[in-house]
Design a protein that fits this description.
It holds the Pfam family Beta-lactamase. By secondary structure, the protein is an alpha+beta fold. Helix content is 32%, strand content 21%. It has a nine-stranded antiparallel beta sheet, sandwiched between helices. Strands 6-10-7 form a three-stranded antiparallel beta sheet. A hairpin with a 4-residue loop joins strand 11 and strand 12.
């Protein structure tokens, strides 16, 4: 790398580690981006860049933790895949085999692929109850799902469901005797080396100095700290609740592709597309599987109030984008895809 290029990257706030993809230096995050971007090839970071504010005057850093939103579903998919690999869960198995009081004809496969019809719509489910403990949150959420009528006959269509992943988390807990959170810590976060990742409670988020607060865009264009909202849950769940860093997500990707979390065949089963969502997008087991310019890219996006995230994993590359503002990431994600596809 030339001195001039190193100077340019440093001025842009980037940390160049390996100069294998020249266009990475031209990545345009836009003036309003707040978060962290990591681009890697052959499991090694090419570029790590942080911008914006994490909380008040504290800047985002490469090691800042962000709530992953629906990227968490990949973690849940891997957890279910591990138990299926061990013969403790069957993808065609009925929900009623593992949990009482839920529609008997729903299968694990349907929960994983958003074809179960179970639960509330993904948006507009109303203000949350004021739970103040992990146990209250888990029990209360499952009771709401249990008393919510099915939206359609299982297996007849695709309709995104966060509640389905709460049920998958409950199955993991029922089968293993551990809480969903403890199972993930022991069997995914630890073996992957994700030392800066965890499911954080509201008090932990408020007390931390290394966690980016989500900034929620209001109808008038102003932003507010979502942690002050009654909608900010005591703890997130198997659908959206993991906090992590860009570097830890790369570690997850490396462990997944390297066979540390699942065998290679089961990795393909979990990440591979099962149900068409569009002409080029397919739902896997907690993953989405895409065709981008004729090449396979798997991963998952996430979004919510003050949350915008995405993981793309290509043949020999990966890109992580984590933001604590609810702005669209398409311009950044598409730039990165064009670098590799």
């Amino acid at each position: 790398m030339s001195t001039s290029r190193r100077t340019v990257l440093t001025a842009m706030g980037a940390v160049p580690v390996l100069a294998s993809v020249r266009p990475a230096k031209d990545l345009d995050l836009g003036q309003d981006f707040s978060g962290t971007v990591l681009i890697a090839r052959h499991d090694r970071p090419l570029l790590v860049r942080a911008a914006g504010k994490a909380n008040g005057s504290l800047p985002n850093r490469p090691d800042t933790k962000f709530v992953l939103a629906s990227m968490t579903k990949m973690i849940t998919g891997v957890a279910v895949g591990q138990l299926a690999q061990d013969g403790r869960i069957a993808f065609p198995g009925k929900l009623s085999t593992y949990l009482d009081g839920f529609p008997p004809d729903v299968t694990v496969h349907q929960l994983l692929t958003h074809t179960s019809g179970v639960g509330r719509p993904a948006l507009g489910s109303g203000p949350p109850p004021t739970w103040t403990s992990i146990d209250e949150t888990v029990r209360g959420t499952l009771e709401i799902i249990r008393t919510t009528p099915p939206r359609f006959t299982p297996g007849t269509r695709y309709e995104y469901s966060n509640d389905a992943f709460w049920l998958l988390g409950a199955i993991v807990s029922q089968v293993t005797g551990l809480s969903y959170y403890d199972y993930v810590r022991r069997n995914i976060l630890t073996p992957a080396g994700m030392t800066r990742s965890d499911f954080l409670t509201r008090p932990q988020v408020l007390a931390a100095v290394d966690v980016a607060h989500p900034y929620w865009t209001q109808p008038d264009g102003t932003v507010t700290d979502f942690t002050t909202s009654p909608y900010f849950a005591f703890i997130g769940g198997p659908d959206n609740g993991l906090y992590s860093t860009a570097e830890d997500i790369l570690r997850f990707t490396v462990a997944l592709r390297g066979g540390k979390l699942l065998s290679r065949p089961f990795t393909d089963i979990v990440t591979g597309g099962k149900v068409p969502v569009s002409a080029t997008e397919f739902a896997g087991y907690g993953f989405r599987d895409l065709l981008v310019d004729g090449q396979r890219v798997f991963g998952h996006p996430g979004g919510g109030p003050g949350q915008a995230t995405n993981l793309d994993v290509g043949t020999d590359w990966a890109a992580v984008v984590l933001s604590n503002h609810d702005t669209r990431l398409d311009p950044i994600v598409n730039q990165i895809r064009q670098m590799f596809t």
